[in-house]
Write a structure and sequence with these properties.
The chain is an all-alpha fold. Helices cover 68% and strands 0% of the residues. The chain starts with a helix and ends in a 16-residue tail after the last helix.
Length: 459
């Protein structure tokens, strides 16, 4: 236990030396047990880690951001950046925006970032020697002069210039850029000459084995001894940082084993929550209702078992017979079924007297059907037999029957004409309706021409 505490203390020291906010080792223990007191510090630590990975440093801007950003903005930013890096934990993504809970998920996310991004290795890369820094950082720049230079070189608003003035302005800018490039080239050559002069004059004196002269920074510090003390302090601080980083490399296995225990605690919590959710809820149902449901369940089970046996029997019969049945046998069977259906329909029609059996209406047929007129009796023209009684009375009855049949035919023809007229009017109404719908639809699309098909004359 003491060993893991010392390791975590070392980790907090490494983080603090590399710019993060101060974090106590106790917060790691609280986060392992999902204590809410560790939520805020770990959100801040994760923000600093994300900031470091993006900008390669933890500076005053990150400190200012943690104080200026609201709680919700900081949480949203960290979640978004973690997803960009590939951390797709559902529990982490569902953490509340007010930083009230979820310290264990934050600790696991911190461990994932350390392992995935190699935070410690990046800290080591930043521990470079101050002797390798640029000499321009040692010179003070007149801020007032720099501000006036920046204001003087601001571009005037081009919206207030006419095209001729804009062209002249761009030509002026082009000439100024070319002049600046010439000046830069001259300064670069002057710098190279001065650097060569320093290298030539210090030849034979070196602080590093890879060259036989002093660098510009080394020569500058020899001329200004007060800067040497400052750089020695920087070197001592970097040496301490490197020693702590190397010591962490030796002890990091202890930390990762402890992180495995944190992950085990998380998995145990998930299993417990799943077992609680699997408990059967209690419903307040009377005993009578329970008995009825039990009886219904038994009946349903018996019916399922019974029909399962029937289905299995039919499947076995089909497996046996499907190889014996040919396509011709199936066609003959279908034809016999259709013949039987037509015979039954005829028998039903005869049993109903003169009222014919209505035909079934399919989806492809119109919703109206023509019903044949009543068939003529034996005294009709279609029958070659004379009605009983013969003589004039028979001829009179035949004539009367023919007149009656002619009137029936005329009535049917008039009904048919009416039906045709109704159909024509309905078709015309449908055409008008569809035409209006097409016009409305065509108005909704630009650069589209709707060409209707050629109209067909209704016979």
């Amino acid at each position: 236990m003491a060993q893991i505490r010392d390791t975590i203390e070392l980790l907090t020291k490494v983080l603090r030396e590399n710019g993060t906010s101060k974090l106590k080792a106790e917060m790691f223990r609280l986060a392992k047990f999902n204590n809410d007191d560790a939520v805020g510090p770990f959100w801040k630590l994760l923000f600093e880690m994300v900031y470091f990975l993006r900008y390669k440093t933890i500076d005053d801007v990150s400190v200012l951001a943690t104080s200026e950003l609201t709680t919700e903005e900081l949480v949203v930013f960290v979640k978004k950046e973690m997803q960009y890096m590939g951390f797709f934990s559902r529990d982490f993504a569902s953490l509340p925006m007010d930083m009230t809970r979820g310290s264990r998920d934050l600790l696991l996310a911190f461990g994932w970032v350390m392992c995935k991004a190699g935070i410690i290795d990046k800290f080591m890369e930043n521990c470079a020697s101050p002797l390798a820094e640029d000499t321009s950082a040692l010179y003070q720049i007149d801020t007032e002069l720099d501000e006036s230079f920046r204001k003087r070189n601001q571009l005037s608003p081009r919206a207030e210039l006419n095209p001729t003035q804009k062209v002249k302005y761009l030509l002026w800018l082009n000439g100024k850029l070319r002049l600046s490039l010439r000046n830069l080239y001259t300064v670069q050559r002057q710098k190279a000459n001065l650097t060569h002069k320093i290298h030539k004059s210090t030849e034979g004196v070196s602080l590093t084995p890879d060259r036989n002269h002093l660098s510009v920074l080394e020569a500058y510090m020899l001329r200004h001894p007060e800067l040497l003390k400052k750089n020695l302090q920087l070197l001592e601080r970097d040496n301490v940082r490197l020693q702590n980083l190397l010591l962490w490399k030796e002890r990091e296995d202890i930390f990762w084993k402890w992180m495995e225990s944190v992950l085990d605690a998380k998995l145990v919590e998930i299993q417990q929550s799943q077992s609680r959710s699997m408990h059967t809820p209690h419903y307040f149902v009377s005993q009578e209702g329970v008995d009825k449901m039990e009886i219904s369940r038994e009946k349903l089970r018996d019916a399922i078992v019974k029909y399962e046996s029937i289905i299995e029997h039919l499947e076995r019969l089909w497996d046996i017979k499907k190889s014996e049945v040919t396509q011709k046998d199936l066609d003959n069977l279908i034809a016999s079924i259709e013949l039987e259906i037509s015979i039954q329909r005829a028998n039903i029609a005869l049993s109903m007297g003169n009222d014919p059996l209505p035909q079934p209406i399919s989806n492809d047929q119109p919703r109206w059907a023509y019903v044949r007129p009543s068939p003529l009796k034996r005294q009709s023209i279609g029958s070659a037999t004379m009605p009983p009684g013969g003589g004039q009375s028979g001829m009179a009855s035949l004539s009367e029957s023919m007149k009656h049949n002619v009137s029936d035919i005329k009535n049917e023809m008039s009904e048919l004409h009416k039906l045709v007229d109704n159909l024509r009017s309905e078709i015309q109404n449908k055409q008008d309706l569809y035409q209006s719908d097409l016009d409305d639809l065509a108005d909704k699309f630009d650069d589209v021409v709707c060409i209707p098909p050629m109209a067909r004359k209704i016979p």
